């Protein structure tokens, strides 16, 4: 359904890779998306609702655009929202639109392989995070163990900092988040990458059921092309691609870490 008239209840959010240093670039990016949507007859809110709780955004019946994580998409959202497309952040050695987890440890930790961290304390952002929990779970379990000692940090930045501060020994981070942490956080110098997981589909863009996904895809694709080179570099955006719904749903889900 194409919306022709503005609706005060409309909502949009692009909070997944938000940092204070990027807020202005994200606002300009949204301004371009919104202008392109208007050209297609699709109304959208003037400003992003970046402070609204993520599940409230993703489940809003008036959602025009947001970005979610692959695990919430396959667990709870895939049959309730439109899959718009997947931004390509140009993650090294990953197909377009794919990403992976980096497993980071302290730079001065002398252990040289993942198996040496059996018994270590593991930091992960959320139970429902593909990069923070699901991908490392599959990666580590393939080596015959899992971390018995864990800390849920509620954010990739918090996970990385917990390792740097010695509160945990190893953390799983979204590769794009790690890129931003290295760019903006001095403590990143205290960390090193120990291992990498296999690539999986990146964070998809979604809209409420009934929204015109193809028109929104086109608006985003055009907006990325219209970004200044500076903003495109800041946001790390290379483009947008279509990853099939089935590719997201085929990824296995780990058990809830708080239930074992």
UniProtKB/TrEMBL annotation:
It comes from the Bacteria. This is Phosphate/phosphite/phosphonate ABC transporter substrate-binding protein.
């Amino acid at each position: 359904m194409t919306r022709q008239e503005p609706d005060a209840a409309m909502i949009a959010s692009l909070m997944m890779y938000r940092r204070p240093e990027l807020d202005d670039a994200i606002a300009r990016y949204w301004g371009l998306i919104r202008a392109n949507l208007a050209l297609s007859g699709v109304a959208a809110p003037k400003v992003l609702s970046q402070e609204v709780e993520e599940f409230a955004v993703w489940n809003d019946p008036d959602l025009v655009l947001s970005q979610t994580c692959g695990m919430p998409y396959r667990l709870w959202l895939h049959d309730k929202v439109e899959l718009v497309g997947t931004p390509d952040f140009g993650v090294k050695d990953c197909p377009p639109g794919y990403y992976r987890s980096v497993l980071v440890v302290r730079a001065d930790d002398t252990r040289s392989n993942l198996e040496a961290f059996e018994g270590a304390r593991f930091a992960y952002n959320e139970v429902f995070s593909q990069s923070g929990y699901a991908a490392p779970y599959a990666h580590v379990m393939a080596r015959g163990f899992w971390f018995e000692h864990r800390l849920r940090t509620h954010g990739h930045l918090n996970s990385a900092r917990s390792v740097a501060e010695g509160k945990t020994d190893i953390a799983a981070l979204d590769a794009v988040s790690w890129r931003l942490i290295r760019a903006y956080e001095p403590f990143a110098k205290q960390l090193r990458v120990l291992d990498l997981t296999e690539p999986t589909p990146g964070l998809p863009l979604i809209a409420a059921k009934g929204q015109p996904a193809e028109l929104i895809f086109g608006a985003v694709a055009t907006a990325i092309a219209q970004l200044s080179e500076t903003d495109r570099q800041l946001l790390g955006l290379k483009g947008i691609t279509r990853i099939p719904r089935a590719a997201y749903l085929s990824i296995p889900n780990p058990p809830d870490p708080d239930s074992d």
